Amino acid sequence: MEVFALALFIITFAITIFGFSRWADRDTKLPPGSFGLPVIGETIQFLFGKPEKFVGDRMKKYSPNIFKTKILGEKTAVICGPNGHKFLFSNEQKYFAAFRPHPIQYIFRSYQTKAAATPPPELPRDETKVLRQPGFLKPEALIRFLGKMDTVTQQQLQAHWEGKDVVKAFPLAKTVTLALACHFFMGMDNPERIARLVQHFDDITVGMHSIMLNIPGTIFHRANKAAAAIRTELMSVIKEKKDAMASGAKMQDILSHMIVITDPSGKFMPEAEIADKVMGLLVAGYSTVATTITFLMKYVGLNPDVYEMIRAEQMEIAASKKAGEFLEWEDMKKMRYSWNVICETMRLVPPLQGTFREVLTEFTYAGYTVPKGWKVYWTVSTTNMNPEYFRDPQKFDPSRYENGEAQAPYTYVPFGGGPRTCPGKEYARLAILSFVHNVVKYYKWEVMDPLEKVNGDMMPTPEKGLPIRLHRL
């Protein structure tokens, strides 16, 4: 009888707890979905499956508007579709604040002690504020850099491709992009010094979204070793920059600005913080541009008609230039078709899969409540390949961006939107267009393995480096 009574009590208690939890869920009405396994949640599926598949499968299973998950240690709501994009972009700072996953915080915040894990309020919270304040990425500032973009691209093409029949496109895209970023952000013009850093930046890019297991052989461990190596190099660059500035050298790069900027109390930014912020800028200006250039080379190489239209546009611009003249702002405005090709490349292979936000205050979306402190994951993959918004979405078709075929608002947002639109959008546009101008002016190419496997998700990487056969024009 006692055993029966105890069993009855346990069953009654379990039903009560279950009923209470169901009532609580109904009361708060959390988004549908699953937090996955204890501690790790659904991190493994997120990191090692295709991001678009991870999101797409859950949209079908739970809701096309919003679902919950747990990734990288955080309870997360994934807000989907164009309406989700609009809601997120329209409510920055009201419901959302920028959030960096813990691996990124760890890699880029070495200067902070455990007792001071958050930057002081008088200092910029992230690199984008450093960029926005002096207007380095405004068109009027970028105009002065166009000639350098043109020159660097020509130099790199000549150094790595001249006289060769077969080359790999991906390594060159990375070298060109890193050279541009180092010159723009730091005023550094040393190709050999830059080339040594390429693999380190690759390791960091992959490690920014990884399981925080800091033991030899893991992705996160390699990222931290790479960050330490880059940080050492940057500390040396900072000292050289300070010496040059003390000697009266004219400095117009972002690193110089970081060195002289002060907080309201008159304190300068510590060198270790400058190094980490510059490293963050370089990573942001490197991986996304290099990825887009690489896959543009692939899709243009596979579509001769697209190549011919780009070349016709670019040769008309080249014919208008005198010998020795570099690209100018007006030239970039004429590259409409070339930009359509770049847009289509970014739709098929997004250079940035998504970003995270932190929920500042509880809000309701699509009938569900998202609590304060949760994270929100924004991703382009909920619209880019949706036939509802893009006809024949698997097809590479730059003509879809021409007159009469503009997409509905918030369906194509490769650079985000709202107050947190990527501040480097214009920089990326000019860097890629400058590369396109020079590569089609001098070369035609064939992709040697159209079915080459693409590895990685956060930084898509052609397994063999995208080998192409060159034809010098």
From TrEMBL:
Keywords: Heme, Iron, Membrane, Metal-binding, Monooxygenase, Oxidoreductase, Transmembrane, Transmembrane helix
Gene Ontology biological-process annotations: sterol metabolic process
Primary localization: membrane
GO molecular function, one term: heme binding
Alphabetized Pfam families for the sequence: p450
Keyword Iron: yes
Localisation per UniProt entry: Membrane
Keyword Oxidoreductase: yes
PROSITE patterns, A to Z: CYTOCHROME_P450
Residue sites binding heme per the record: C422
Cofactor list: heme
Gene Ontology terms: cellular component: membrane
CDD domains according to UniProt: CYP90-like (cd11043)
Membrane topology of the entry: Single-pass membrane protein
Family: Belongs to the cytochrome P450 family.
Name of this protein: Beta-amyrin 28-oxidase-like
